[in-house]
Design brief:
141 residues; mainly alpha; two-stranded antiparallel sheet; 4 helices; 48% helix
Amino acid sequence: MADEDKDYEVVDKRKVRLNEQGEPEITKEATEDDKWKTDSSTVTGSGVTQEEPQVQRVDADSLIKSFIGILSAHAWQWLGLVKNPLTGQIEKDLSQAKIAIDTMATLIISIEPRLQSAEKTELQAVLSDLRMNFVKQSTQI
């Protein structure tokens, strides 16, 4: 098809292009706001722009909640009630379970004043379940 037969016009609206040296550069048509947005993107070798994931600010309470979740998951495994996802085997270790449960209790106490009532209730329920199952598993021979 010849150029004069086209019923349309192709307009390149990319904000970032590769220069002659193959390095990414912002085009003159990009607005100041667009230039700011491209700071968080990466231009691949093919010239395709990919957004980098935005990093969210993490506070101590969020980290502690994550640690509680990790400890809880491992405590269930060490109680012998959940298979180890890596080995697919039940691996009962009550001494490790006790350490995890006691550490969870300490962490929950440290963040309790800043929790919503629903979060407090949920964490206390998980802790109670683990404690009851620990007693049950400890008395079984």
